[in-house]
């Protein structure tokens, strides 16, 4: 045990402190407390001094209160002396220290206080010395400007208050029992009445009443001396402690504390700026609303703060939003408290991307809409299908889904309801019955739109049950499933397979002409346990399914339907299962017929001398669509599709009248042919003839795509460009990596003409204004959805080309034409261009820098061609190029060593460009491109000091003696650029500081220290570190013990009573925390504030040792409570039950007309 391992010489504070730190069991803490109580009874001053030193030590203070100090000094003087003893080298103290030991300290510390009160509750707690001294000390410490004292003492005081609440609750119960015994004895006949017992009961009740009064006084002292100050403390952790504990008081002893005079503190603090404090408010309220017996006492509070709770469901802190939704779910128990508008604001959160929020909203929705389930009669057979109790609930789910108008998010709705309504969502028998069976007499049938929604929801429930993970965008990564979850998954897959293997063919037959319904239904077999087709003897249903799929392929030409059929065949054609041969035969027969039909139609379609009609073109297109959709997932190499498709594409080039959709699908199908051929060659076992054939086909196809880049049809050009980029990337030099050197003959690098055509396509089809893009949106420029779709398509085209740059398929310098568009098209493509710059810099820093400077040079030349050589350097065009250069400079980051060579090369190229073209007017005039130096100066801050001198020397090689003497305006770019290179440490320092501060002051430390330069650090770095990392000068601890913000009355020396009244009154509700940032530091005393402003370098969220501690109520607290002005209430424990009926009702403390009288204000602390 810890006790046996500690030295005997340890005094009580060290013993208890180490017990708390070691997180020992409760038995040892009880033993320590019992020993201390015995020592207190023997010598209370010495024992109490040990307890005081324990609290001081738990605050992290090295000072010790001596016996002389304890006897002769006031608490304020003792605290001031301990403040001087505090270790200022570190802002850490036990409650904030990191590490597993210190994390357990808080719990043990709180347990010690609870045990101490529990063991003393029948003896020394009422001696009017122990508790008065401890409460007085904790009250003084909680008012300290030292955060460690304030935090530790507030925690101790709040836990002490909670322990006293438990004592008061026990006293109340004992008083009620005693009173009941007294009444019983007194009601007996005189002959049977025991007068001695009556006197004992009266004496006991009197003692209990006196004890209760003592406890009331103690709790009043803590509440007024600590809570009413600290619940508005500047430190969020302290405010959170207060709110957490007042929630415990109201929950433990609701008769005394669950009234509006205490609830108001929780209600106001729900507007706190810090999420952790708002979270404590909600968790405290959850403990109250969970007990339905307390709902009547919460009615006024609910009506007053309901709107705030509803608004917190949209809190910027997700944890707060989750708890707000859970609290509203508990509020649902109260009839008609939440309006339909309140509920709707929670309903839409089931579509939130944050899963805990969505799950909480799903539980709210389930309890609100699905709690009216019809009870089944006992002994009656269980109703199934559309007669089951779930039928109406499933319809309600469909109605809600349609009314939400978010039809593409059924998977998110199902995931949100999964934890609370999985039983309902997995009632697939009822769903299929609603779709297949005729409605009952008097029952309204589902509409076509409702059936579509039900099928989509049914598919999502099947996917959720089979995959056991949330939809894309809502998952938190792969999670290891438990054994129970795995068993549930297997059972669900078995049940869904047995059900849908039978029900799916009729469903497909019923909805075979509806593309949307069929597309969703065809995805169901992907989640089947295919072994059940054999073990369950369901082969005839498999045959029916294959027949239905074939009929759907023949009926539909929609790409989504055909791809769904292809994926279904792919899922069923699994060689691991015995049904493979049956499905493979059906697939082969269908594809044989399709290919034969395509070849026959194509031969007629391409006959010379005959112009094909629209019907022939439609037949070719529909057949080609089906083949292309299946070629995506199935290897059709046994049918020579390359020859027929290439012939079709070649005819389109020669004649120029080929329908665009035929060309688009022929390009796609040929692409699949080449990819499947490559997959077979990459397997390892291949012949040389296969490589030669593939190489020939690939190059012919690339040439064909290149020719289609000049097609008049935009859709065809976009398809050719996308496929060409994919083929170039796949067959680049990257394909031989990973031990695949045998594929080297297939490597294909685009020639210069192809690179130029690709770049030209990007410049003419991507970097265009929205209104100019008339081809890809079919003229629907006013349609917002069409514009978004067109932008998405252009982004894909740009991303395809940028991948060629990143993987070095095309020359990196071609990226200059992309990079120069960074500013102009920042909103549309800024993220893609920035990522491309980042990737190219990782590949080759120097070449990337040369590409960046080339893009600036191109823009500069374009500006000169428009404005001429005599342009104004304040023009928008020139300023735009300079701003682009500044943005480029920021992408190099702060590490000058890593980018040293790249920046130097960038300056070299820039200087050479600036002096490349001499003035046509003679030597006395500046070079034509001299103004480019003004742009180049944006990169000077990225040069290291020694490199600045080198670049300056290189600049002087291009300068003549006369140039150095020029001071005219036309030479200002040269002058400013030279100054940026000669600025040395000052410019270097300022540039780094500005760049560093732009990151949002990322250096965080409890105590800023002067930086020590290392050998590798430059002098500029040392200078910057010395500027930004000075240690702030700390003032001595002021002699004021109160840390309240003083009003004007304090300066004039008004009595302390008036000052207390000014801050003990109720403050109005603050505004929404999302609209105004929470101040981390608050106005200080003038002397201290002046000292900090002198350093100017204190981090915004650092916590100095000496600080002001109250949240300011000036300028940010509007009176949203309609003029409410209350003072702190006395804690008045309720009378025993026989007195409770005669007690008057308390006033409504949320009513503005209810103002407290003077008798309530005139209270004493002790």
Automatic annotation (TrEMBL):
Domain of life where this protein originates: Eukaryota
Residues covered by region (Disordered): 994-1026, 1071-1095, 1126-1145
Gene Ontology annotations of biological process type: cell division; chromosome segregation; sister chromatid cohesion
Domain SCD: 227-312
InterPro entries, sorted: ARM-type_fold, Cohesin_Scc3/SA, HEAT_SCC3-SA, SCD, STAG
Keywords, comma-separated and alphabetical: Cell cycle, Cell division, Chromosome, Chromosome partition, Coiled coil, Nucleus, Signal
Biased composition (Low complexity): 994-1003, 1077-1089
UniProt cross-references to PROSITE patterns, sorted A to Z: SCD
GO MF annotations in UniProt: chromatin binding
Assigned GO CC terms: chromatin; chromosome, centromeric region; cohesin complex; nucleus
Signal peptide: 1-22
Coiled coil: 168-221
SUPFAM superfamilies, sorted: ARM repeat (SSF48371)
Biased composition (Polar residues): 1013-1024
Subcellular location field: Nucleus; Chromosome; Chromosome, Centromere
Pfam families for this protein: HEAT_SCC3-SA, SCD, STAG
Main subcellular location: nucleus
Similarity comment: Belongs to the SCC3 family.
Subunit relationships: Part of the cohesin complex which is composed of a heterodimer between a SMC1 protein (SMC1A or SMC1B) and SMC3, which are attached via their hinge domain, and RAD21 which link them at their heads, and one STAG protein.
Role: Component of cohesin complex, a complex required for the cohesion of sister chromatids after DNA replication. The cohesin complex apparently forms a large proteinaceous ring within which sister chromatids can be trapped. At anaphase, the complex is cleaved and dissociates from chromatin, allowing sister chromatids to segregate.
Name of the protein: Cohesin subunit SA
Originating species: Esox lucius
Source taxonomy: Eukaryota, Metazoa, Chordata, Craniata, Vertebrata
């Amino acid at each position: 045990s810890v006790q046996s391992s500690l030295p005997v010489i340890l005094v009580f504070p060290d013993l208890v402190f180490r017990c708390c730190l070691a997180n020992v069991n409760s038995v040892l803490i009880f033993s320590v407390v019992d020993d201390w109580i015995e020592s207190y009874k023997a010598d209370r001053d010495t024992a109490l001094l040990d307890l005081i030193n324990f609290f001081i030590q738990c605050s992290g203070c090295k000072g010790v209160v001596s016996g002389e100090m304890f006897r002769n000094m006031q608490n304020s003087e003792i605290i001031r002396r301990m403040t001087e003893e505090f270790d200022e080298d570190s802002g850490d103290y036990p409650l904030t220290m990191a590490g597993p030991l210190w994390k357990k300290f808080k719990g043990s510390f709180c347990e010690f206080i609870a045990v101490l009160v529990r063991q003393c509750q029948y003896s020394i707690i009422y001696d009017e010395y122990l508790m008065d001294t401890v409460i007085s000390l904790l009250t003084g410490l909680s008012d300290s400007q030292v955060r460690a004292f304030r935090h530790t003492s507030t925690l101790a005081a709040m836990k002490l208050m909670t322990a006293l609440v438990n004592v008061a609750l026990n006293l109340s119960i004992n008083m009620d029992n005693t009173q009941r015994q007294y009444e019983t004895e007194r009601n007996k006949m005189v002959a049977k009445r025991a007068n001695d017992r009556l006197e004992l009961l009266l004496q006991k009740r009197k003692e209990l009443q006196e004890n209760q009064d003592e406890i009331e006084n103690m709790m009043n002292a803590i509440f007024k001396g600590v809570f009413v100050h600290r619940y508005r403390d500047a430190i969020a952790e302290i405010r959170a402690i207060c709110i957490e504990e007042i929630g415990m008081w109201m929950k433990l002893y609701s008769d005394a504390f669950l009234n509006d005079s205490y609830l108001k503190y929780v209600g106001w603090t729900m507007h706190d700026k810090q999420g952790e404090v708002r979270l404590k408010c909600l968790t405290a309220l959850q403990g109250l609303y969970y007990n339905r017996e307390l709902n009547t006492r919460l009615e006024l509070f609910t009506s007053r703060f309901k709107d705030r709770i509803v608004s917190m469901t949209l809190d910027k802190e997700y944890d707060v939003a989750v708890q707000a939704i859970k609290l509203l779910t508990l509020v649902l128990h109260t009839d008609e408290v939440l309006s339909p508008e309140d509920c709707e604001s929670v309903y839409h959160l089931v579509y939130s991307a944050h899963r805990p929020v969505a799950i909480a909203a799903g539980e709210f929705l389930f309890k609100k809409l699905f709690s009216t389930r019809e009870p089944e009669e006992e002994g009656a057979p269980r109703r199934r299908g559309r007669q089951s109790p779930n039928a109406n609930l499933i319809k309600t789910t469909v109605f809600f889904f349609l009314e939400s108008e978010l039809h593409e998010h059924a998977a998110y709705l199902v995931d949100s309801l999964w934890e609370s309504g999985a039983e309902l969502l997995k009632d697939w028998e009822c769903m299929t019955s609603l779709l297949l069976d005729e409605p009952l007499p008097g029952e309204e049938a589902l509409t076509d739109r409702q059936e579509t929604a039900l099928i989509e929801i049914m598919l999502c429930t099947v996917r959720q049950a089979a995959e056991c993970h949330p939809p894309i965008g809502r998952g938190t990564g792969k999670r290891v499933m438990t054994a129970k979850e795995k068993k549930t998954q297997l059972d669900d897959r078995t049940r869904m397979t047995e059900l849908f293997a039978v029900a799916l063919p009729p469903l497909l037959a019923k909805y075979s002409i509806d593309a949307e319904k069929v597309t969703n239904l065809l995805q169901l077999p992907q989640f089947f346990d295919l072994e059940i087709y054999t073990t369950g003897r369901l082969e005839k249903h498999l045959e029916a399914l294959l027949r239905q799929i074939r009929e759907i392929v023949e009926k539909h030409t929609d790409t989504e339907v055909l791809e769904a059929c292809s994926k279904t065949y792919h899922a069923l054609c699994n060689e691991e299962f015995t049904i493979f041969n049956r499905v493979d035969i059906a697939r082969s027969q269908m594809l044989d017929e399709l290919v034969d039909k395509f070849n026959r139609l194509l031969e007629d379609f391409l006959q010379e001398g005959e112009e094909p009609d629209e019907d022939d073109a439609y037949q070719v297109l529909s057949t080609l669509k089906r083949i292309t959709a299946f070629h995506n997932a199935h290897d059709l190499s046994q049918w020579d599709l390359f020859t027929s498709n290439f012939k079709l594409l070649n005819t389109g080039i020669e004649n120029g009248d080929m329908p665009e959709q035929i060309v688009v699908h022929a390009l796609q199908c040929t692409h699949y042919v080449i990819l499947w051929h490559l997959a077979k060659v990459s397997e390892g076992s291949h012949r040389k003839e296969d490589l030669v054939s593939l190489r020939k086909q690939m190059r012919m196809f690339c040439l064909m795509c290149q020719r289609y880049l000049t097609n008049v049809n935009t859709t065809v050009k976009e398809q050719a460009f996308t496929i060409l980029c994919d083929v170039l990337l796949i067959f680049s030099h990257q394909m031989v990596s990973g031990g695949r050197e045998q594929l080297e003959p297939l490597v294909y690098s685009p020639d210069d003409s192809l690179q130029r055509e690709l770049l030209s396509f990007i410049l003419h089809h991507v970097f265009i204004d929205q209104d100019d893009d008339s081809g890809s949106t079919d003229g629907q420029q006013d349609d917002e959805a069409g514009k978004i779709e067109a932008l998405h398509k252009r982004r894909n085209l740009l991303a395809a080309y940028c991948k060629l740059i990143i993987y070095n398929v095309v020359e990196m310098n071609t990226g200059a034409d992309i990079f120069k568009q960074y500013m102009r098209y920042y909103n549309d493509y800024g993220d893609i261009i920035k990522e491309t710059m980042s990737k190219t810099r990782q590949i080759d820093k120097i070449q990337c820098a040369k590409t960046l400077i080339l893009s600036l040079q191109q823009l500069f030349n374009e500006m000169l061609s428009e404005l001429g050589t005599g342009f104004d350097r304040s023009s928008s065009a020139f300023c735009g190029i300079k701003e682009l250069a500044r943005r480029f400079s920021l992408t190099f980051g702060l590490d000058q060593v890593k980018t040293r060579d790249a920046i130097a090369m960038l300056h070299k190229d820039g200087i050479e460009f600036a002096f490349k073209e001499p003035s046509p007017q003679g030597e006395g005039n500046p070079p034509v491109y001299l103004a480019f130096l003004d742009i180049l100066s944006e990169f000077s801050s990225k040069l290291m000091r020694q490199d600045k001198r080198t670049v300056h020397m290189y600049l002087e090689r291009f300068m003549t003696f006369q140039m150095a003497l020029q001071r005219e305006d036309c030479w200002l770019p040269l002058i400013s650029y030279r100054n940026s290179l000669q600025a040395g440490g000052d410019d270097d320092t300022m540039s780094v500081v500005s760049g560093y501060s732009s990151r949002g002051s990322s250096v965080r430390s409890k105590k800023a220290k002067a930086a020590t330069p290392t050998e590798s650090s430059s002098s500029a770095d040392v200078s910057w570190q010395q500027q930004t990392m000075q240690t702030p000068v700390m003032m001595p601890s002021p002699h004021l013990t109160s840390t309240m913000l003083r009003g004007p009355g304090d300066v004039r020396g008004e009595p302390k009573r008036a000052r207390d009244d000014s801050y003990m009154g109720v403050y109005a509700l603050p505004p929404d925390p999302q609209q105004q940032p929470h101040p981390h530091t608050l106005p200080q005393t003038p002397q201290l504030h002046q000292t900090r402003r002198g350093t100017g370098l204190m981090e915004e969220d650092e916590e100095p040792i000496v600080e002001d501690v109250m949240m300011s109520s000036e300028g940010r607290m509007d009176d949203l409570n309609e003029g409410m002005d209350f003072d702190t209430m006395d804690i008045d424990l309720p009378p025993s039950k026989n007195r409770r009926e005669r007690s008057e009702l308390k006033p409504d403390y949320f009513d503005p007309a209810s103002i407290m009288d003077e008798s309530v204000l005139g209270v004493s602390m002790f």
